[in-house]
Fold these 4 entries.
Entry 1:
Amino acid sequence: MEMEESLNLFYFLFGFFFFN
């Protein structure tokens, strides 16, 4: 579960930078 949360955050940051 912790790994899933970490991946979720990673994808969120990746998307944020990608959109920026």
Note: The helical segments are 2-19.
Entry 2:
Amino acid sequence: MSIKIALFVLINCFLLPLSIQAEEKIKIGFLLKTMQEDRYQHDKRFFEERAKSLDVEVIFNSASNDHQFQLKQFSELLVQGCQVIVLQPVDTEKAEEMVREAHARGIKVIGYDSLLRNGPLDVMVMQDSWEVGRQQGKELEKWLKDKYGEVRGKIALIMGEPNDNNAMTMSLGVCETVGKDSTGMCKKIKEKICHDKEQCKVNEDGVGTKNPNLELVFAEEHKGWSADKAADTTEEVLKKYPDIDAFLCNNSGLARGVIKTLRAYDRLDISKIFIAGSEADKANVEYINKGEQNLDICKKIRPLAETAVKIAVELAKNPLKEVNETFLKQFVKSADCPECSFKNVKNDYMDVPTIITPIVPITKENVHTHIDDGCAYISK
């Protein structure tokens, strides 16, 4: 009888911590690189709303585009009881040190929106940044055909933060459209990030082959994704290339900087100079509606944020679960995101299991469409 009692006590000693652990509220860290652009208010809102609906606690912070500040924030999360951290890195080249530190403590890390390079990552949730650049290029081709009857001209590439993976991949998507690159930027990006032949559709010089008369004449990176710096860059472009045909920008804020200078120089005419942005901030969508910007790309925020929450909860509940292709494909099917897809994405260290969420080009033709997913729109 005493043996049975001893066994009962022993078994319950093991089971009690497990039951307490099972009842413990899930806690997720969520770090954004900035709140500078309009879209990030939606990232935070959709993420926290979905987490609340699942009874999950979120510890949120943003880093004002400061890598050192983000390192400090990440270290604080490691001691606050988070089972999973969702991270949008400020510096995609240096973020791997944070992930390694988390893994050493048994904490999983989900990449969000910007893919870190040269390091480990459990899962990635993002839009296809290559496709963002390609969509900008496709709309530019249509515009040039209307203007000249053929695809030819000179374009300027207004890039975001140096070494930011999204900035580089969006830009390489644009490079697929051009046939000449007098800046050398396309080749530089290709050599840095282009290790997937299926994804990178450029030649040895980093450009495409279908538009030999379309030339990239200017390309500049902008620290902090600064609209003011983009405005200064635009002034430089106008002085060097007064016959410039297009400004393709890595985000909406940079496009606003371009528009500010074009207006100041009395050159703001979208029938003469094509302007494209990305992220569809409210001000830019209003520009499109007023005929002051040609294109912006809506990166659908609701499916991005909500999918990140759901996969974080899944990993927190099942910390020993192997995150592989089979698991993520099943997850995508059950995640209520019919437009989402799965693929492995190379980051120079590993094939990162990645969930891809949708994007939508916004032009004058569809600017009145209500897209309830964090993209700005104009009410009918």
Note: The longest strand covers residues 214-220.
Entry 3:
Amino acid sequence: MLLWSRQSRIFVWVVFAVAVVVIFLAPIATVALAGFAGQWTGPLPSQLGFERFEKALGGDDLASLAVSLQTALVASAFALVLGAWAALSVREVPPWFRRVIDAVFHLPIAIPSVAIGLGLLMAFNERPFLVGGTKWIVILAHTALVLAFAFSSVTAALERLDPAYRQVAESLGAGPGRVLLKVTLPLLMPSLGAAAGLAIALSMGELGATVMVYPATWRTLPVTIFGLSDRGQVFSAAASTTLLLLLTLLALLVVGRIRGKAAVR
């Protein structure tokens, strides 16, 4: 072991705990606390209340929250279907072609999301592929950004999958479609659940590409939060951010529960 003494291990754990608190927990706690603040001129906020949250749960903010959830669910579903289909399709291709496909699917996360948004806006702004100015261009942008994670998750799961399952099913007379539906997909459900959770979390917080393409009728909550912060309404932005965090965690819990049931089956 690199750390021989008990004191050294304790020191490392303390440093790690402090880093987690300072880098991760403290900013989240500060944002949540700011959502209750009427003003913050000293070490701690004052005039605490629920006014900011009441406003965030009504009007345009609530509509943006619903838009974010719908976008995340639809984009994640598209990404799972496309990612799983691509991963299953490239299993039998030559290794060099598989590497090319892998690079193509990971390209959207290797370049700035703003570039993705601008590219989609320019590519789909003319007929017959006119989706600019509609909700579908936002969903398309989110799908492109989370597709790589679905593809990677299913690809990794397929590499770990014992081919004996498929071989036994085929020896019993099952066709390719039945093997896929009755053997392969059930075994992939835990990985698909993990990919869905990650895709939803990433989509719920996506801003860079969204701010380039969103129409006024389909504004996600991160865009609304950015607008509030830009106008100096940081406490309202903090309340909306807290709700976004809670909704994302709730969605992850639901996906995790579904994933757990699928794994048991």
Note: The first helix runs from residue 6 to 35.
Entry 4:
Amino acid sequence: MTLKKMPGILCMCFLGLFLFLTATQPASAQMKLGFKLGGGAGLLFNGGGDLEKVRLGYQQYAEDILDYNYYSSTFNWNKMSFAPHFDFEMILVFGRNFGLGFGTGYISGKSTGDYSYTYDYTGNPWWGTYWETEESTYARTYNVSAIPIRLNFYFFMPMGSMTFYGFGGLGFYIGKFSHEYTYDYTYDYEDSSWYYWNEKEEYTYNFTSDEKAKANALGFQGGVGLKVNFTPSVGIAFELFGRLVNFKNWTGDYSDKGSLRDRWWHELVGWYYDYSDSWTEKEEGTLYYYEYHAMSDYYARMWVLEDEPSGSSYKNVRPAAINLNAFGLSVTLFILFDLF
């Protein structure tokens, strides 16, 4: 069985459960058609899985680089903690206690951050003084979203003007991932000498990239709710829910563009060398998670790559796994109509 067949399988399950519940209800039992429309937010358990590991990897790198002389760093990148959502569901209610729901919706999570590394050194050899500075600045925006197709089973407990209920079921989740990235690098060198001619170098590098990937996954959702009935047909429900869905085997594309400029200055002749270049690239592949060796440790990374990373600089290479596992609260408009 492939994931592509799951929407059809869920429809068949819905039809089969509908026929079963209809056949097992007493002839006098009333059937109702209900609609739920609402939204809320979920607190993500672990920041999206591998996405959080990558964020922590860059954070650790920004801390470790401070062990080297003349380096400083900044880091402003928060964990993806919340995933807002909205939902629509059609529910068939059988008698007083049982219901079968079929619905969809939209879930999204976002993580943005920026960080930088700076190297600043002043040397004083016998011939004079020189200044050397490097600055690397980065900005990232990750978006993870999903459209669920859900089949839920409901159990209702009417209590006067309120109804307590529980629900749970299986979902087919259509996931999307995007990552926008910018990197700017500058290097400056200048010296002042009583013995040699003075010199300068200015180097700049600018790079932007964009990744998009898709994946599908089976998931589970469930929870409890309390519906306050304003009329026999209309009510507002407050739900506590949980969701488990983990996306693997992301496939997509990667594109980037970059430019650089390098120029040299000499006290006698001025600016005598000036080189610039620009390029664009695009490739399709798999979203890989891996740990890359830099400085004296390995740091988590995640990119869409045509080929699986290999070599001594890489370890724990595998397809990335990003999840939207969450626990949260929803507020829902609940409408019921008598069928027969």
Note: The chain has one domain: 3-338.
